[in-house]
Amino acid sequence: MITAEEIRRTAKQYDCFYLYEEKVILDRIGALVREFPYTHFLYSMKANDNQAVTAAILRHGFGADCASPVEVQRAELYGVPREQIHYSAPGKTDRSIRETLNQCILIADSVNEVAKISRIAEEMGQRALIGLRIDPDYNYNEEDGNALPTKFGIEYSQVKEHISDWLKDPNLDLIGIHIHMHSQELYWPRLAAYQDAVLQVADELIEEYDFPMSFINIGSGVGIAYGRKDEPCDIEALGGSLTQKWRAFSQRHPDIQLFMETGRFITGKAGLYVTKVIDRKVSRGKTFLILAGTMNGFIRPVLARAFTKFAGGYSDTPMEPLFTKTDAFPLWCVSGDGRTIEERETVTMAGNLCTSADIIAEDIEFRKLLPGDLVVIRNAGAYASVVSPVQFSALPRPAQIMIREDDQRALLEEKEKYASRV
Description:
By secondary structure, the protein is an alpha/beta fold. The protein folds into 2 domains: 4-17 and 270-419, Lyase, Ornithine Decarboxylase, Chain A, domain 1 (Beta Barrel), CATH 2.40.37.10; 63-261, Alpha-Beta Barrel (TIM Barrel). It has 11 helices and 18 strands. The chain has helices at 4-11, 22-35, 51-58, 69-77, 94-100, 111-124, 156-168, 188-209, 235-252, 300-311, 415-419, and strands at 16-21, 39-44, 63-66, 85-88, 105-108, 128-135, 154-155, 172-178, 215-217, 257-261, 271-283, 286-291, 331-334, 344-351, 359-367, 374-377, 399-403, 409-411. The strands form 2 sheets. Strands 1, 11, 12, 13, 14, 15, 16, 17 and 18 form a 9-stranded mixed beta sheet that branches. It has an 8-stranded parallel barrel with strand order 2-3-4-5-6-8-9-10, surrounded by 5 helices. The longest helix is centred in the middle third of the chain and has 22 residues, at 188-209. The two termini are 36 Å apart. Mean pLDDT is 92; it is low at 412-422.
């Protein structure tokens, strides 16, 4: 566990920073491998792109779920084989397809995109490895309800209309399917029902269209407990359910690999964000703490406050990965000088950007902090720095540091980058 002394020591050098704990990452990896014994995992590169974090995960034999050519290239640099790099994103450009066609499995997101990949493969004199992201006839939230419109994937009726032609296309090796419909799910029976629906789609495509399928990517969906009242997803029960289903499926189709994306599960609980109190001021009787690098360092607590304010109170209606729920990011504090802080006050915590939106907490009761003290935000390991507008006002980027299992520290952002100004 990251200690207060570790936080203080880092704060002597940086005003705002992320601390990642390798032990938590390794524990989460171990849990997935243990509970899903027949599953190959794809690390969701977009969740946290830092080098030490990525290396800690990919060296355990995980593949990569990528959303851009840059992520594909990073995965290749880490030695991930082509067959375990899945490039899945809507709206792939000609350039992005050309840059990645020989490096990964391209997960086609539309009928037009399949045609685009075929054309570019022919122009390049190559044969593209592709999978299909399918939008199934399934309503995730209502098992018996009608499927809802979505920007992601190819509607299942369109897949069935075109798949015979795609399988005969000389420029394509169509080898698998990808279905992902939901993120941040904690109720394991809902995920289990969804996984069953994915395998039913695979069965139908294999049996009715003689699809030479070599992989099924069931997406992610496994969430983490953000709020105080959240019950963690029972991955032991979910893993047991999927294992039973997969054993039966494999008897019918023995040569298919099962992939699952990790989403935020591995890294989400492994990170803290720390921001220093730069100033405190009183405006017409209201106390403000001015913090370093809030909205432009870790935007999600700012968004949590904004969503809650506009909702008129507590909200747990998610808009992933920007908003999960009101209490997703608990605050605690560490004194900068090692003193014990007992006095409390009502305070508003604001950042140092020139916008009134840069507030992480308003009129909350908290320990009385002074300049140099530190506010610590939990659940900062996934969709944190990667979704924050770090370029806003050209202020210093937060440092990012891995606390390794052997207690060594790995600095992920060069000091020159942290200190740079444009």
